[in-house]
Amino acid sequence: RLETANRQRAFKALRQAVDQLDPKDPIAVVSIQGSLVFHSDFLFDRQALDKILDRAAQVSMRTSVNDIERRQILGELARGQSGGIVGRTTLADEGNLVARIRGYAADEYARSVGSLRQIESVLSTLSGVSGRKILLYVGEGIPTRPGEGLYVEWRNRFGGPEMGMRHYDFNTDYTREGGRFDLTRPMEQLARAANRADVTLYAIDAEGNHGFEFRSALTEQGSTSESVSLVDENFRAPLEYTTQATGGRLLRSSGELPEQLGELFTELDNFYSLGFEVPPDWKPGSEHEIEVKVQGGGDLVVRHREEVRLPKPDEREAGATVAGLMYHTLENPLELVANPGEEQAREDGTTVLPVLLEIPVDNLELVPRGETHAASLSIFVSVKDEEGNPGPVQKVPFHLNIPNDKVEQARGEAAHYTLPLVLRPGDREVAITVRDDVDRTLSTIRLDIAQFSQKL
Question: How many whole angstroms separate alpha carbon 170 and alpha carbon 151?
Fold first, then answer.
């Protein structure tokens, strides 16, 4: 969510900074517009990238129903204040305002959780991309506790004992009314998801003054300093925590944003890489905290990932498949080739497309097993649908057995496997990864299947 002025300011700075990057650095653009929109795979073409960013900067932001409700609540707070004790008592006794604040907080919470889940989806697609990766989030922040500032403002204005009301205790009452909307845990989950994907998070907070709306709406005495500071803290704290937990940092919108982005991109060429031996008692999928100390470093502060996770079986392969599908990050050391056959329609509206996979036997690791030499392979498949979303990764085993007296002859030939792809109307692309289970070599290829699925 970006207001027009914030959007244009942030994207102007972003375009200036991107122009300073090495042309060899690939960049992909993804936006959250109710759902994820992948504007590109990884691009090296700076002119194409500039066009994408220009279009993104010009997107007009429609005021959401929740934004209107927040402004109306602030207006009610201001009118209750200007109406004196009688007006304030009426508002407080009716309880309507607290109910509206609760409803606003619930809606904002749901929207924020949805955004966090979509960011996690992007991170999952990046897990299979090799090399150093960063995700730069551009937005107006995600509040840790939606509606907290409104609750505090209501309490400070209408919860006092001079109106004969029970004192509104923030620690107890906000937790009961809105504490269930706390986003601390989802933000922690986002940081863990980034660390699992080996992605460093950076963020641009495009809103320079989160408390401005409170100050401007409550004009008679101004909003209380407590609520204003809570609003600022609410929006910045989660971004600061999440970026720092992954070794990144938060950039705040200001006139110096282009310089901050320039410094950020300079950091990409100046980083350290640390390795360590994995203890034998670490189990696949387990997460472990990391602490980095600089001996004799004095006041030096090291930004680094706070956690590391040991991958589960097949995670690397599944990630490579999805990354190949979404970003075209294809590596093919096994020299895998895919040849589509004739599709066959089925009664349920889908079609089966047989794809013949060919792999030179010379590129496989053959293991002697009695009277044969064997190769063990695993095939991973994911299909992109008409909305551009990757489907679940399916795994298929493939075992090749060659009689000992035929091994030399087979080395000049190719191993074949027919993979039956089940396609739905509108399916666009498929990514196929083959793993040699012996030496763990991976090959990923991508196949355009739109011509087949469009016939359904």
Answer: 8
